[in-house]
């Protein structure tokens, strides 16, 4: 008979999240005097750590509880992201936007977000903003089919890779804080972005939910999109071919909508490659070769 709780049920991606939380707990302790409401952040991170360890060891019987067991960590991501708004400027104040702008100019002899204005059309802005929004749901196109097919080993592997991409992106934002071209190059942009109706609502909502974030470098959007395409090709070729136009446009949208510099996109590609290397190292055991 299965026990109510067992540490043997804790998965690699549970441990990954625990590691992420422990690092932040350590960083908050080191910078306790400069972090606003440091005691509250410590408590929240510690309680989340306990929740992960608790839920990770459960074996729910009811179907909806099983769904929560496998997807609950993705609900933490918006909370982790929101915390960065307060933690990053307290731990690593300043930004590297001017350096990123110089790198972009060295690579292209121009500012890509300014150069791409020649292709501006309201209908294209509307389309790309909608595509940009799919980022928040994109991993589900692989997670849900894997879960429905009860291929939980592959589910765990993909979930690990996606969560790792978010966590490494978040630490990248801490190490290399940057606001992005929509702030630092606004004086050079001669075209006011506008869509056909939904663009303004979506962009305003996202800006309101995310606050001002130092989240330009690296581009987590690019890393996650490429990971989804990689695992879709590996597990579901049909989904890969259907999703490729969306993923391609999503990457373009990061520049067109002025969220990222070109160097952010290149860093997102490098982050994707790093995660694939880590994935192969961690899941290269004989039992995982076909997973």
Short overview:
The protein is mainly alpha-helical. The protein has helices spanning 12-30, 38-56, 63-91, 97-108, 112-115, 122-133, 140-148, 152-175, 181-184, 198-210, 220-235, 237-256, 262-282.
Spatial shape: globular
- Report the C-alpha radius of gyration, rounded: 20 Å
Tally of DSSP β-strands:
0
Percent helix range: 55-70%
Q: Count helical runs.
A: 13
- Helices and strands, in order, run as HHHHHHHHHHHHH
Number of domains: 2
Taking the sheet with the most strands, its summary is: none
Uncertain regions: pLDDT < 50 for 5+ in a row?
none
Strand content: under 5%
Structural class, please? mainly alpha
Average pLDDT rating = 92
Question: How far from one another are the termini?
Answer: 28 Å
Structure in words:
- This protein has 291 residues and is mainly α.
- It has two domains: 1-93; 95-291, no CATH class.
- It is built from 13 helices and no strands.
- The longest helix has 29 residues, at 63-91.
- The chain is globular, with a radius of gyration of 20 Å.
- The relative contact order is 0.13.
- The mean pLDDT is 92.
Key features of this structure:
globular; 291 residues
């Amino acid at each position: 008979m299965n026990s109510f709780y067992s540490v043997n049920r804790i998965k690699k991606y549970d441990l990954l999240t625990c590691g992420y939380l422990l690092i932040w707990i350590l960083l908050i302790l080191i910078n306790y005097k400069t972090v606003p409401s440091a005691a509250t952040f410590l408590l929240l991170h510690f309680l989340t750590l306990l929740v992960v360890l608790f839920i990770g060891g459960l074996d729910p019987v009811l179907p909806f509880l099983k769904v929560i067991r496998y997807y609950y960590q993705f609900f933490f991501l918006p909370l982790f992201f929101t915390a960065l708004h307060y933690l990053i400027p307290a731990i690593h104040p300043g930004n590297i936007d001017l350096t990123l702008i110089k790198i972009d100019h060295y690579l292209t002899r121009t500012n890509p977000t300014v150069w791409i204005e020649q292709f501006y059309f309201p209908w294209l802005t509307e389309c790309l903003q909608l595509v940009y929004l799919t980022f928040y749901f994109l991993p589900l196109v692989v997670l849900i089919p894997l879960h429905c097919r009860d291929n939980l080993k592959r589910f765990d592997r993909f979930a690990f890779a996606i969560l790792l991409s978010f966590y490494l992106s978040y630490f990248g934002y801490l190490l290399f804080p940057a606001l992005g071209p929509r702030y630092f190059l606004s004086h050079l942009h001669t075209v006011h972005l506008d869509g056909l109706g939904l663009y303004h609502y979506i962009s305003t909502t996202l800006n309101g939910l995310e606050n001002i974030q130092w989240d330009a470098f690296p581009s987590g959007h690019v890393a996650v999109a490429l990971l989804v395409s990689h695992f879709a090709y590996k597990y579901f070729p049909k989904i890969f071919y259907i999703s490729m136009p969306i993923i391609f446009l999503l990457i373009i949208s990061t520049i067109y909508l002025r969220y990222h510099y070109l160097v952010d996109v290149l860093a997102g590609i490098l982050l994707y490659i790093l995660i694939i290397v880590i994935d192969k190292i961690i899941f290269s055991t004989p039992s995982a070769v076909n997973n």
